[in-house]
Every structure is written in structure tokens, then in C-alpha cells.
Amino acid sequence: MAAAVSNAGGLGSLGLGSADVSTARDQIAATRTATSRPFNVNVFCHQRAVPDAAREATWIARYAPAFEKLGAAVPQQLRSPYESFLDNPALFELLKSERPPVISFHFGLPPPAWIEALRQPGTTLLASATNLPEGRMIAAAGIDAVIAQGWEAGGHRGTFDPAIADEQLGTFALTRLLSQQLSIPVIAAGGIMDGAGIAAALKLGASAAQLGTAFIGCPESLASDDYHATLFSPTADRSFVTRNLSGRAARTLPNKLTEIVATATDDQVPAYPIAYDAAKSLIAAAKARHVPGYGAYLAGQGAPLARALPAAELMVVLQQELELALR
Description:
Order of helices and strands: HEHEHHEHEHEEHEHEHEEHHH
Structural class: alpha/beta
CATH class of one domain: Alpha Beta
Distance between the termini: 30 Å
CATH topology of one domain: TIM Barrel
Number of strands: 10
Strand content: 5-15%
Shape: globular
């Protein structure tokens, strides 16, 4: 997918937030084989999870009936399914040596020394912000451009500190704020699904737009058949934000998985990403038994506008729509 988008004139992105070093190395190599054009690699900069055995045991008990219904073993304990980039110096060394064209940070920023080391000739650094203070921190850190992640966006909210109330700023309001208050370029992200949306973001001061949900329907996507079916069903207009899947706020589509955790209160949810371990284990069990409805189908508010087109064709359509909207 990343290579297909880059080959079509966009900036494809590899999501390495949950990848180990070996997987990250393989994905970067495969992308470089498939495209000679720039691409982005995205990493997660969340704080290390603090385990809570009692809370995690209660979380397992919440999931237990679903595992039993599938005839799958109930997990005995939960662990962080992946490391933060901040705790993964081996991944830092890999990116420093591989020198990908673009590196983007989510959930925060790495240490200043790492930022300086990764800022090499030919590498552009990006970081997500959900509000103006985060944007100012990104600019002050010397990051090249800021991604304005609006409340409409699918996937995990990029808030730096989940303990601080989310301002829930929409993409266009946030884009305008950051473009007026910061001296670095702004990339609008969240709810943008077509050329008209891209044009609107550009008119509000963005230098570019980032689209994610718009590409889930592409055949190059790794989304499952059930994910695709959900995206192109009436369920697509019911996306909502919850922290009950992973431990951090994320916009997703409702299904059997979200029903399991729907009534959980904040004080019952384990830390991110430990809470996600239960969901990922159940997803794997359901997939092995070919039972639909148990995926983490992350998608933005614009999901009903998704189109089932090959990535290259979608890029052409987006460009045509953009040119028409800018006339």
C-alpha cells in the first residue's frame, strides 16, 4: 500500500508503531524494492505502561466469555503487545542507519538527541498534534512539519498526555490554529476523504492533507474482508471514540469486539497498550476460527465516503477532485 501510494504521486506510510525491529527492517526494505519514491515510517512515542495486576485480571474476566464462546483458551495474563519507540533504542538505531525519507511521531516526541540524530540530509521529520500546545512543542523541538490530527480522524488520538482532557478540536479548526500560530508547515488529517476535503484544508492554511480511512477500501490494504465489509455497510456512519479497546482513545467502528468493552469505566481499563493485548488475543482467536466481527476496525468520521478503488486509481481521482475544487 505504501509503495502503491508513493508510486502514484503521494507519500505512502508504513505504520511501524507495533512492529519489532526485524519486521520494521523487512517492511522498509520491501517498500524500497517496490518504490524509488519517498515514503514515511510512523512510530509511537507513548509512555511505558504501568502494570496493574488486579485491573488486568478483571479485564481478562470481562473477555473470558468471548474466548470461551470461540472455544479458545482464556489468557492467563496481559502484557504490552509492543514497545514504545521511546523504549526501543534498537528501532532508533535502525531508523538512523536506514535513513527513511520521512519519519513521523505519534503520541509525543522522542528525546532531543534522537530528534537531532534522525534529522539527517534527505530525512524529513513530522509529528502529530491534537491541539495548539502540542503543536508548539513540536515546532520548538525542531520538527519539520506538524500533522493536525482532528477529532474526526480514525485510529488512535495522538494526544501527548492522556491524563489531560482532550480538547476534541476538529480538523479544520486545528489546521487553522496551527497554520496561523506556527512557522512550520501544517498537514491536515482527520475526516478528509476526497479532493474537495483536501482543497478545503489547503484553503485553511494546510500545506498538505493526510488521508487514512480513504485507503482502507483499496485492494492493497491489509484490512480483512470483514473490515472491508464493515466499512462499506451502514455501520460506517457510526464511528465513535473509545479508550476501552486499547487503553488510549481511538476512533473505531462498532462490532462484537467493541460490545465486550462498551460498559467499562475508565478506572477499569488497563494501561495502554496492555489493555490492547486482550483485544488482540481475541481477534487472533476469532480470525483462526473464521468468525467475523472481532477486529479493531479503526476508521474516521468520513468512513461512509470510502471508495473501493486500487490505490493508484484513487490517487488519480483525488487529484482530479482537488483540481476541480480549486478552480
